Amino acid sequence: MSRLWQTCLILIILVAVAVPLRWANLAQRPFHADESVQAMKFRTYWKTGVYKYNPNEFHGPSFNYVSIPIQWFSKQDIDTENEAVLRSVPAVFSLISICLLFLFRKVLGRSGTLLSGILLVVSPSLLFYSRYYIHETELFTFSLLFLGSLWCYTQTGKRRWILTSGIALGLMYATKETFVFNVAAGVGGLFILLGLEKFKGAPVLFLKRIPLTHWLLAFFGLIITGLLFFTSFFTNWAGPIDSLRTYMPWLNRAGGQSPHIWPWHYYLQRFFWFSKDGGPHFTELFILLPAVLGIWAGFKDHFSPAVRRFSIFLGSYTLLLGIIYCVIPYKTPWCFICVMQGFILLAGIGTHYAITAWKNGVARAFVCLVLVAGSVHLLGQANQLNKVYYEESKNPHVYAHTISDVRNIVRTVEKLSSIHPDGEKMLIQVITKNGDCWPLPWYLRKFDDTTGWYSNVPQDLRAPVLIFSPNFASLIKERTENAESLDKTPHYKYAGFYGFRPGVFLQIYVEEKLWSEYVAKGLAADDDEDEDE
Fold it and tell me: Which of 42-51, 198-207, 214-223 shows the lowest per-residue confidence on average (mean pLDDT)?
């Protein structure tokens, strides 16, 4: 079997291993608020066929479009399906990322391709976010395609690769605003490479050798791809301008106008040494060991000049991207996975170096033993994060996540509607502090037309079901009692206290007559059974 087919076989096996890890119990964890926002945006597009890019929120437009095939293939009703359908979108992209290692086969070698592939499969953070309906895994995949196509172009000079790199950059642009950090880190990495080569007296000339037509081809791929998505396929011509305007609100958030402000070492703690609330230690430090060796290989004469230069560029790019994310005050843990991508590729180069440069059989056996042990350790952590601590604060990647008790809220509301004369047209009023109601809009989507959402207690409390933050309890009680004397508001009964997120709770009041019928039919007893599940 040729080396090409051996590489293909390696990647096929890795994808086969990755599939059950990504789809096992995919709906076990309820949607995070961010997941539910994206799900509702896609639901609107799926049902109406209308999408218009919003420069103030929700990130790039491509996520809606790449979700279409998965939704169509599922053959499920978007108003009744569970979380697994839409979470299959990032899961599929994570499999594509594994396949894209084929583009790096000449720089990684078979051993490096194998290790990088294993790390893409078992990395705790990458596995966790491959089961998360947000933009990050898509951006991860497109940035990997960008790097891979650039590498292929530097080796072949073929136009198809420079065009692919432009398209990949356009897809990154249409996915999330943070793609500019990847571009900035890439430009910085290129300058560092050029500076080092010039210092050694061997300047890199390939930039000067790129024909103008190839530059234009890459630019064409970028612009056309961006236009297609931001104009919603030529139906919203304000989209491209909005794609530039979006950086004003995001700059405010990045500069500190956000609740997501954390110290510079936040990502380092989350990814490389995390323990909280008596939970186990979680760390992906193992990935850094061969990654450091991969950077070191760029300064040795073992590989060809092209591979050495790519190693130096990749190391510079990854470190600069990590520094950018650490310096910016705005931080959410999923943003850092593109940095982990660079470390994983470098780990593959480092492994390839160790296996080919160290001829001693004992040394090679030791390297293989360490790599196997490290990979098994990562897999064990990944299983813990996704099967045991999937919604607990002991998990470094659980960030203000919804807890499973939200499903009990939904079940209670659905059972109440089943005995209410209006059925799914039953009125519901949801009153949450600062409008912090997500992901309830997703879980109550069948009540879309008759649910009111409030950030303060409204004067008119008339819905049979009230769901509210506990800090509004005294005011709601006062208003309902005052209105009852005037026969303007139903008399309510307390129906439950539910967890929403760690330290965040919701209460339910139900109109007295409806609650009495609910209890008489034994549905309240079913609530206790739901809590035991």
Answer: 198-207
